[in-house]
Amino acid sequence: MTLFARHDRALTALQTRGRYRALIARAGHDFASNDYLGLVGSEVLQAAAREALDRGVPVGAGGSRLLRGNADEHVLLEQEAAAFFGAQAALFMGGGFQANTAIFSTLPGHEDLVLYDALIHASTHDGMRLGRAKTQAFAHNDVSAAEDAIGTWRAAGNIGQIWIAVESLYSMDGDLAPVAELMALADAHEAVLVVDEAHATGVFGDQGRGLSHAYAARDNLLTLHTCGKGLGVSGALICGAQVLIDTLINKARGFIFATAPSPLNAALVRAALNELRDNPARRAAAQVLMNHAHKEAQDHLGLSGFRSQIMPIIIGADKPTMALACSMQDMGYDIRGIRPPTVPRGTSRLRISITLNTPAPVISDMFRDLSQAKKALPH
Ligand code: PMP
Hints:
Elements: H1 5-16, E1 29-30, H2 43-54, H3 72-85, E2 89-93, H4 96-106, E3 113-117, H5 122-130, E4 134-138, H6 143-155, E5 162-167, H7 179-188, E6 192-196, E7 221-226, E8 236-240, H8 242-251, H9 253-256, H10 263-278, H11 280-301, E9 310-316, H12 318-330, E10 333-334, E11 336-338, E12 348-353, H13 360-375
Helix pairs in contact: 2-10, 3-10, 4-5, 11-13
This protein binds 4'-deoxy-4'-aminopyridoxal-5'-phosphate.
The site of 4'-deoxy-4'-aminopyridoxal-5'-phosphate has 13 residues, from helix 4.
């Protein structure tokens, strides 16, 4: 037996099934990033970085937030984020994955129930796995299924707190959650609604504050705004009731035992939030571009029903999906295939994202070329 023979075999099996993942270089027109507002390479964030360095913002935190790692930039960002998103309090973390594991491993207690949408992100699953609450899925975007699950759980005599975990804009499907109905459900059952706004932040809601912004002041709404997608930086802001934020600060292991995000990173997120507030043109342009892309998908592929900047083109099997992605890459379009376990079996897809990095004529060309390449797939 050679060292790591088991790992070798597992990787070979993935290759055989068309599921092997390899890192490929960034090339071609952007149809793959989450940089929806084109902020990643923007002059506004470059200038903010230079300005922050010039005024002495440190590049590293030097420790965890509860020790010496707590920098002025973190505190300012959290104050500004709470005000911007309209919440009582905010907590800045290194990333959305870490934030979801912190939320779900820490806040629901052992008598509680976490009801989660069937398409919820892997990071929420990992958080629930680390936590002590009972967990149960409900059918995607099906509010009455969630209500039935609440009824059944209460009828069995459970008295714990109910937490409802959803995304506002689903990362691999691009559809939107019925946030108003979910909030009403949470209100009716004294449940807490936890909305992962990862893909909506910057793009949807007044000033890009997300699809749940109208309820932001509620005690029973907790939101997650990741900062590495529409905001173009990295990190994540958890926004909600002060008592929940204080609980995370006191109990979340991923917060307590981690080096704080770079203060420079916090300064850049502050700049990105300012840009959302002060430059509505960016969000308006993203909206125009996504409408254009929806129309081109209808014209060239006969596909409709897209709701956002994330446009899944479902192919089904893994290998043709990856072959199609490769031929699009060869034509100069950076389009990636998404396979299980990221999406359910038999629903492998191209995940096309529309960002301000790619102008309308290139979007038109891409959909035209995609319709040809799709026809050329073996049946
Ligand atoms: N939630 C959702 C819905 C996501 O799509 C992602 C990123 N893929 C995350 C959380 C994790 O966020 P981050 O990339 O900031 O760790």
